[in-house]
Amino acid sequence: MSRSPMRREERIAVLVPVVVMFTLGLWGLDRDGMWRDEAATFQVARRSLPQIWHLLRSVDAVHGLYYLLMHPVLAVHPGEVLLRLPSVCGAAAAAGLVAALGVRLGRPRVGLWAGLLYAVTPMVGHYAQEGRSYALVAAGVAGATLLLVRAVEGGRWWPYGVVVAVTCVLHEFAALMLAAHACTLALARVPGRLWLRWGSAAGAAVAVLVPLVLVSRGQAEQVAWLTVPDARSVRGLVEQFFGPSRRVLVPCLGLAVLGALAPLPRGVSLAGVAAPLLVVPPTVLMAVSQFRPLYYDRYVLYSLAGVPLLAAAGAERVVGSARRLRLGGWTHIDRRLYGDGVALLGVVAVCCVFLVQLPLLRDDRRAAHRPDDLGAVSAAVAQRVRSGDPVLFLPSLERRSALAYPAGFRGVRDVALGVPAAESGTLYGREVGPEELRRRLEGLRYVWVVTERYALDSSWTPWNATDRVKLAVVKRDFVTREEYVRPHLTLRLYVRRQVPPSNGSN
Q1: Distances (CA, A) of 56 to 66, 291, 423, 501
Q2: What whole-number distance in Å separates Cα of residue 305 and Cα of residue 224?
Q3: Where are its TM segments located (predicted)?
């Protein structure tokens, strides 16, 4: 086959997954309602650069580069679509890079199948529509992996080092890709000079990351909610990576195992790239988390790229075996028609995977599918709370709904707020101390409380002294007059108890 048609096939194999992923990412992107993590991106990225820097010194340094990248994006037109659009672009780029890896290490149809399978995976679609950095990190890791392959085959190493450094600063757990890449080099049995060049590039990237690691270690309380991963965590990750439906999981897992068991030639191979990328980062993070919990599935989203690559490689092995069993000779036209037919058959198989998982993809595009809907909270407040009414947020982080959707809270009186979020260098603002809050509450005849159901449970004890005062005072001095309950929201109107008349003499 001439090189020109091959290049055309390679371009098609890469561009089709990009277009499919971008289209799926745009589907339902304008859904209303940011959830809490998206709201953090939205309100922080809209601050001035000095205010963002002020925040990062005390909290969320791990997301600092992402906030800085989102700052000019949201300056254009703040809203849900622009908040999520960079993630759509990141997921589309990742799909194309996965396809490019399949093309370079296999053949065009392998890349086409891998890129399309990546694009229709529900976990990919989920983070493609979320205003956080994970889809961009996945694109960065896929890009760094492709640059690693090129460097080993004679390319330059500095682009690899730059992309690794930027990706790791975007999210520091992306540094685990270096362990996967080391395994790839070991499986490829590269000579010592390549190990030295890779070590120099990787070392430079790690040196760039070290200051962020030191700062984020001082902010470790942000991930104090994480738990030690167990067998359920492993099972959950397998379902997320290979497909929640058994009709997808079983054949995809079988093909991936077949692809991973392919004989490894000397040099970089598809299995030698994909298997370490899939296995090493989650395994290392889960192992470390047995001593200090740091694992969450989205932190290793980028490892998912190994699944479609291995599954496509496994499918290619099946095709090769079937072809060897065919009797008779092959003409040039026969081979071309056979190759096109096989490629089309693989695309049809991916379409079937898409149809099986379509209900999951459709449900994921509803705001109710996220952990919470801050837009719904703001709308509920707007319907019931009048301008000038006093409001308490319990706990204080419930103020995030007012920061993300301030229109619903316009004119209300935030009783506990001392210094606003942007000025205080915090995510949710700095509240007044317990005594000042008691003084402010003394003169109120009524107060609205925005909270979640768990915060009103008798067994819950706030860690924050100001939140403890809120809870104690409203329970002691007020009674509930109205209550509006939704998932992840309780809005209560408390009115002051009537003081019984004294029986003593005047």
Answers
A1: 12, 27, 13, 54
A2: 28
A3: 12-29, 81-103, 110-128, 134-152, 164-188, 194-215, 270-288, 300-322, 342-361
